[in-house]
Structures are given as structure tokens and as C-alpha cells.
Amino acid sequence: MTAYDDLMAFTRDTQALSQVAGRLGWDQETMMPRGAAPQRAEEMAAMEAVLHARRMDPRVGEWIELIDDAALDDVGRANLRHIRRSFDRATKVPATLATRIARLTSEAQGVWAEARAADDFSAFAPTLAEVIMLKREEGLALAAGGDVYDAMLADYEPGTTGGDLEAMFGAMRPVLTELRAAVREAEAPPKLDAEFDEGAQMKLTRLLAKTFGYDMSRGRVDKAVHPFSSGSGNDVRITTRTSPRDPFNCFYSTIHEVGHAAYEQNIDQSFLLTPLGSGVSMGVHESQSRIYENQIGRSRAFTGWLYEQMLEAFGDFGVPDADTFYRIVNRVNDGFIRTEADELQYNLHVLLRFDLERALMSGDLQVSALEAAWNDRFAADFGYAVDKPSNGVLQDVHWSVGLFGYFPTYSLGNLYAGCLNDAMRKALPDLDTALAKGDTTPATQWLHQNVQTHGGLYEPRDVIKRASGYAPDEQPMLGYLRNKFSDIYSL
């Protein structure tokens, strides 16, 4: 066997073990008994120790040195690029630190959930301070003298810096706030006002998952506090949540997570259990979930079909016609929760978190001042006060599990989705005819062929450029939002 063959055989085993670790995390969120949390923390830490040891195994470095890049094809070079990047990262982070982070973040997830239920940030603050201390230590090791936050971003969106995002978000913010102000002055669509059986919601949400191409023979839908997608290849699972007064929470959380899951399920099967067998970045991943949820799922054509499905599932729920339903689905609402935010205001939630977590990592903001900083920023951006911690600083799971650098990829995904939607609509001029019948196949197949099948073969920005024909740009997204909400609100 060649050095490349040896390296890939070793890597496949590492990838398989990583999938097992991911399944432990899925179980912790969905089915694990609460009393098992301390033991699960030990299990997760042990698994992370094994994975970290494999990622920094000296043989990996020896194999890399023996491989002639020029002798490889495009797939081989892409695999080597990912393996080299992972090896360089792993060798910079001490194994003891990686294990401590895995153990603490597993425990912190439970502490966060209890503090959130009790609406008591002070119960979570000491644990969060520990997480930040360890993640900053990790960031310093990874940065090797560079910017700590940039080193964290590289885990989720290679090639992007905090400065890049600051400039991009700075260009987006005035446009979004101006449009939001105009919308809030206009007459709003009515609100949904009925009770929706939660069992019927789950039945319809499974239909929606299948409608958007989710392969249930290689996945499943469960309930969790925070909707998420887990796994890759032939075992990709999603979660959703229900609320009797808000079925859209369930339906659009499901469609969003199906976007993530479809990306993983549709990657070229020859990439299974290799570095190319997962989504290339969280920004590209988010582009799939957001375009499924918004540009497709909240379109006038598709909501017309969904309106008929809801009438069949729930009977008369007080909405007279499909046009009114479309306007209700896309209504701009005051609210606190990022995952429930409308398209227009969603990015403002992300910008808030981006600025706060950068300040936490730099040391400019201490955990003791985080809740007040969150509340002040929210009031400034949204015009009203946070009423309780579960609607504010405690609403997201990300910081408890150490995902610093993750939040900005949500807005980056929206930007990418704007580019992809622009290209997809040009390629599929009759798309709305299919969507009006509940047929998402033209759209999902276009995304499959132009984005999803590639997995990690290309770098993130190259994926979007190849699919849309131009480098990522915020203008398609902003133009889409202007047109859509100007129409809905008669601006």
C-alpha cells in the first residue's frame, strides 16, 4: 500500500469513531435519561481523547510527508488538504486540554438547560466562564500568535476572518435596520390565532421532511429543546419542537434542519467516511438550511400548497385564503428568539451574538457583565427590552458546548443562500409552478447537483462561486429581502 492508502484507511476509522461520538451527542439531546449526564460527560471525554490522539498520531504526519501531492487526483488532493489542516490543528492543542474541553462542555450543556428552565443566568455563569477560559486557551494555541477569534472561525468557515465578517455585517446592518423600520410603520398582516394539536404537527412535519427530499430510511425526526441535525452519509438525524399556538415553529424548524440533513445525505457516496464526506463549512451548510426554509419554504408558491395541507390536518384555523396565509407566514414579528425570527430580523440576532462573543474571547467583556451587555444591545437593536434570560442570553445552546465562532456562519449562510437563489431562479424559471404543487424536486435537485454532491471537495467560497457564477456577495440577499417585504407590506 502507498502512504496515501495507509493514511486514508486510518482516516476512515477516525471518521467512523467521530460518527459514534456524534451519536452520543444526539442521544444526549433526545433520549438520554437526565441522571446519566455525569456518566455521559466521562464517555464523551474518553471518546474525545481517543479521537484527538488519532488526529495527532505521528504516523499521520509521516504519511503526509511521504505523499507527493502532484501524484494525486483532485479528490486525493482535497482529502490531503483536509487531513493536513486537521493534523496541524490537533498538534497545536494539547490532548489534556482537548479532553478537559470535551468533559466540561458535556457537563455545561446540562447546566445550561437547567439554568434556562429556571431563568437564572447566575446558575450558568460560573460554568460558562470556565468554558470560555478553556476555549480561549485553545484559541491561543491554535492562533500561534495570531488573532484568537480568527483561529476559532477557521473551525467553521476556513478562509474567513473576524475583520472580513465585521466589514460585511457592517454593510448589511444599515439596509436591514432601514427596511425593518419601514415594515414596522406599515400595516401588518394578521397573526395566526388557533390551537394546533402537537401530534398532528409531528405528522405533518414528517410529510414536510419527505417533501423536501429527506430520506427517512437513512434518518429520523425526533423532538428536542433546540432543533438540530446530526450525522452524515447514511445516518443523518434531525430534531424539531412543537408549540400548540405556533405550528410554524415546528414546520420551519423541520424544513431548516432538513436542509442541513439533505446536504449530508446527498454528498457523493464515494466520499463516505472520508474528510470529503461532510459539508465543507458551516456557512455553506447554513446556506442549504436557509434556502430550504426561506426562499423555497416561505415562497408564495410553496405556502399555497402548505395552506391546503394545514386545512386538511387541522380543519378551519381562521385563515381565509392562501394569500393571507403567505403574508402570515412571512409576518415580521416582535420577538426574542433567534430560531423563531423572521427573515428580515434574523441577521440582527446573529450580529448581536457575533459582537458579544468576539468581546468575550478578547477579554473585553467578562461573563459577569454578559447578561447586561446582551440586554442593552438587544434593546438598542430591536427597540424593546428582554423580559427573561431564557428569551435572552440563555436561549442558545452554542456557548455552553464551546461553539465560539459558529454564530456568524448563520448570517454568512444567508448571504450564500441569496447568491444560490439568484442562480437557481435563473436556471429554473418555472420553479414556482412545481412549488405550488408541493413539488420541491427541481429546487432540491439543482442544489444537490450544484452544491451538495461535492461535500468537502472544494473550499467554501469556491462552492458558492461555482454554483452561482460569481464570488459571494451580500447584494442578492439584500435585494431578495427588499423585494419580498416591500411586496408583503406594500412599501
Give your account of this protein's structure.
The chain has 491 residues and is an all-alpha fold. It folds into 2 domains: 3-146, no CATH class; 162-488, Neurolysin, domain 3 (Orthogonal Bundle), CATH 1.10.1370. The chain is built from 20 helices and 3 strands. Strands 1-3-2 form a 3-stranded mixed β-sheet, sandwiched between helices. Strand 2 and strand 3 (235-240) form a beta hairpin. Helix 1 packs antiparallel against helix 2 (37-55) and helix 14 (343-362) packs antiparallel against helix 15 (370-382). The longest helix has 28 residues, at 3-30. The N and C termini lie far apart (66 Å). The model has no long low-confidence stretch (mean pLDDT 95).
Based on secondary structure, the structural category is mainly alpha
Shape: globular
Distance between the termini: 66 Å
Spell out the helices and strands N to C.
HHHHHHHHHEEEHHHHHHHHHHH
Radius of gyration: 22 Å
List the helices and strands and how they pair.
Layout: H1 3-30, H2 37-55, H3 58-66, H4 74-92, H5 95-118, H6 121-143, H7 148-153, H8 162-185, H9 198-211, E1 221-223, E2 229-232, E3 235-240, H10 247-265, H11 282-296, H12 300-314, H13 322-329, H14 343-362, H15 370-382, H16 408-427, H17 431-435, H18 441-450, H19 460-468, H20 475-488
Parallel strand pairs: 1-3
Antiparallel strand pairs: 2-3
Helix pairs in contact: 1-2, 1-3, 2-5, 5-6, 8-14, 8-20, 9-10, 10-11, 11-16, 12-13, 14-15, 14-16, 16-20
